[in-house]
TrEMBL record:
This is Tetratricopeptide TPR_1 repeat-containing protein. It comes from the Bacteria. The keyword Cell inner membrane does not apply. Pfam families: TPR_1 (PF00515), TPR_11 (PF13414), TPR_16 (PF13432), TPR_8 (PF13181). Keywords: Repeat, TPR repeat. PANTHER family: TETRATRICOPEPTIDE REPEAT PROTEIN 6 (PTHR44858), UDP-N-ACETYLGLUCOSAMINE--PEPTIDE N-ACETYLGLUCOSAMINYLTRANSFERASE SPINDLY-RELATED (PTHR44858:SF1). TPR repeats lie at residues 143-176, 211-244, 245-278, 279-312, 313-346, 347-380, 381-414. InterPro entries: TPR-like_helical_dom_sf (IPR011990), TPR_rpt (IPR019734), Ycf3 (IPR050498). SUPFAM superfamilies: Hypothetical protein PA1324 (SSF117074), TPR-like (SSF48452). The keyword Repeat applies. The lineage of its organism: Bacteria, Pseudomonadati, Bacteroidota, Chitinophagia, Chitinophagales.
């Protein structure tokens, strides 16, 4: 049967352990061995109660038998099982050792000792003891012998053999409540939930006061994210057994998912009353305080969890998140490093350390961790989300969309993924898809307020710029490009004196940018390239005659651009009044003018693709708005 104690659920970037099967699942035990003749019937009654899941009654009945006969080995056995049900493994082991002393070769007693070791988390000894018990049960003849052997096979991690033996036990005695429960657990492990549910229903039909079947049904609903049904089952378990700490624990996990934080904390507090040294409770309660932004309370709980269990990686990961929230990045990284040291395959620890780097604007280091996170957990929605953030920041829009889409695929309720993907679609000019994503974001509870803008759009290429290609293209060569830039207005030439001239290697990214600009650029739409792509350029400043030179180039294709901004000085006649007088029979008017200088702002963008074919070639180019013969070199 499943023995994992923690079940991981993602929510708001935090793990939530969910307790699964209790530390001791109990045994239905019966024996044909001799007991004290006077009180044999009392012990048999205790066994019947035990088989039907009435553990407290069985323990009390067994205690009566022991009080009357100190040599009633079977009564010690049943009493031991009752103590295990109460999580008192030390006392339970003492009882079963008394039974073994009275009957050393009894397979029941040897098997119960294995259960005691298991309850104390001493699995090596439990497996060794289970092997000894199985050796006494090579040829089971009764339903109880099959049940016992199945329990031992379960300890040894042989689920198929255990399943077959539990089935055989139930064929021989259909009222074995515990056999139904244990077999249901094995079906649970095999993801055969319909079969598990059927067994649990049979167990409840036999004994509706036995809490564990409700607990296991709660687990099934929990894993299926049918949270209200799971809460109902956990609550039934608690009504049957007020000390069922795992039911309180798992109910609290769901309350946190439902944001019913007060109820969750109340349940965790109840678990701490039952098991004050349960580190998982402090870890999970700390997560709730973190959700509520009560960071000091969260820190206190994480510290306590680490004190109780310093070897658990998730506590360090959670505490590191608090340090990051408090802007103590060095301490955050230290804790996340510790989490990775303790569990090198812990996906979430890499994600959280990546968040540390991301918050410090160390995007490259962050991306390494985010990639490692999704390698370890290919369904990590938030790992992909943060990868999308990095690509988004670098204006690598196609890659960002791919990551946001993965994040949504693995968590259809990931609001941030929808909202950020909408922004990327805007950057690529896909307004329709951007609006669909924003609607989905709003439908899921995200807040979008009314806004206004200038009406201008800024678009970018979708592909990812490869700096290695650009860097190689700009490595040192022997070729030269010489040029001159001029503008022509009103029949006059204006040299681009002092203008900045840039040269960029033609890469696939630049080619995409240029084609997009040619297609989409307008008075209301601007097309930019990424900041990283724009870094890979060479700049020159034109002299007084607009001349410039680029030296040390390799053969290849280049893009040369100059923005020529200047003020053109112009002169206009300005009317300054008039004089009218009589000249004989004719009235004459004389208008007076004066000359006034003014300037006109001019701006022109000149571009050219230049191909260098030979190693030591010198190319001469002219950048103008048209043919200006006087601008030639």
């Amino acid at each position: 049967m499943l023995e994992i104690r923690d079940f991981i659920i993602y929510f708001a970037f935090h793990f939530k352990p969910m307790k699964q099967f209790p530390r001791f699942l109990g045994m239905l035990l019966i024996t044909s061995s001799a007991v004290s003749s006077t009180y044999a019937q009392t012990a048999e009654t205790a066994l019947t109660q035990w088989m039907e899941g009435n553990f407290k009654q069985a323990k009390n009945t067994a205690a009566d038998a022991i009080a009357a006969d100190k040599n009633n080995a079977l009564a010690y056995l049943v009493h031991s099982g009752g103590l295990l049900f109460e999580f008192n493994a030390t006392a339970a082991q003492a009882d079963v050792e008394k039974a073994i002393k009275l009957s050393p070769n009894n397979a029941l007693f040897q098997a119960q000792l294995a259960e005691c070791y298991k309850a104390q988390s001493n699995m090596p000894q439990a497996k060794k003891q289970a092997e000894k018990a199985i050796g006494l049960l090579r040829s089971p003849k009764t339903g109880m012998e099959y049940f016992m052997r199945a329990s031992m096979e379960n300890i040894q991690g042989k689920p198929d053999e255990a399943l077959a033996d539990f089935t055989k036990a139930l064929e021989m005695n259909p009222r074995y409540v515990r056999a139904y429960a244990k077999r249901a657990g094995l079906y649970f492990d095999k993801n055969q939930m319909d079969l598990a549910m059927a067994d649990l229903s049979k167990a409840i039909d036999i004994n509706a006061r036995y809490g564990y079947p409700y607990y296991l049904r709660g687990l099934i609903y929990h894993n299926q994210q049918q949270y209200d049904q799971a809460i109902a089952e956990y609550t039934k378990n608690i009504k049957c057994d007020a000390n069922s700490g795992d039911a309180y624990f798992n109910r609290a996990v769901i309350y946190r998912i439902q944001k019913k934080y007060d109820l969750a904390i109340a349940d965790y507090n109840k678990v701490l009353e039952l098991t004050p040294k349960d580190a998982d409770v402090y870890g999970n309660r700390g997560n709730i305080y973190y959700d509520q932004q009560k960071y000091d309370l969260a820190m206190a709980d994480y510290n306590k969890a680490i004190e109780l269990n310093p070897a658990k990686a998730s506590y360090y990961a959670s505490r590191g998140n608090v340090y990051r929230t408090k802007q103590q990045i060095d301490l955050a990284v230290k804790d996340h490093n510790k989490a990775i040291e303790l569990d090198p395959k812990y996906s979430y620890a890499y994600q959280t350390r990546g968040e540390d780097y991301y918050s410090s604007k160390e995007d490259d280091k962050a991306m390494v961790d985010f990639k490692r996170s999704v390698e370890l957990d290919p369904h990590s929605s938030y790992g992909y989300l943060f990868m999308g953030f990095v690509h988004h920041n670098k204006q690598q829009y196609n890659d960002a969309i791919a990551c946001y889409t993965k994040a949504i695929e693995y968590n259809p309720n990931n609001l941030d993924a929808y909202n950020n993907r909408a922004a990327v679609y805007d950057a690529l000019g896909n307004t329709k898809q951007a609006n669909l994503d924003r609607k989905k974001y709003s439908d899921l509870g995200g807040t979008i307020t009314a806004s206004g803008n200038s009406g201008k759009k800024i678009l970018y290429p979708g592909s990812t710029f490869d700096p290695a290609v650009a860097k190689a293209a700009l490595s040192r060569g022997l070729a030269t490009i010489k040029g001159r830039a001029c503008s022509k207005y009103d029949g006059l030439r204006f040299d681009a004196a002092g203008a900045k001239v840039i040269l960029m290697p033609v890469t696939p990214y630049l080619d995409e940018w240029y084609k997009l600009r040619e297609k989409k650029e307008s008075k209301t739409t601007w097309v930019y390239m990424s900041d990283e792509a724009y870094k890979y350029r060479i700049e020159a400043v034109a002299d007084a005659e607009g001349r410039f030179v680029f030296e040390g180039l390799k053969p290849g294709k280049y893009f040369v651009q100059v923005i020529h901004n200047f003020n053109q000085l112009k002169t206009a006649k300005v009317y300054n009044g008039s004089d009218t007088y009589q000249n004989g029979p004719v009235m004459q008017t004389t208008n007076y003018y004066y000359l006034q200088d003014y300037t006109v702002e001019r701006s022109a963008r000149f571009e050219k693709f230049v191909e260098i074919d030979e190693e030591s070639e010198t190319k001469k180019i002219t950048l103008t708005s048209g043919l200006i013969k006087s601008c030639a070199l």
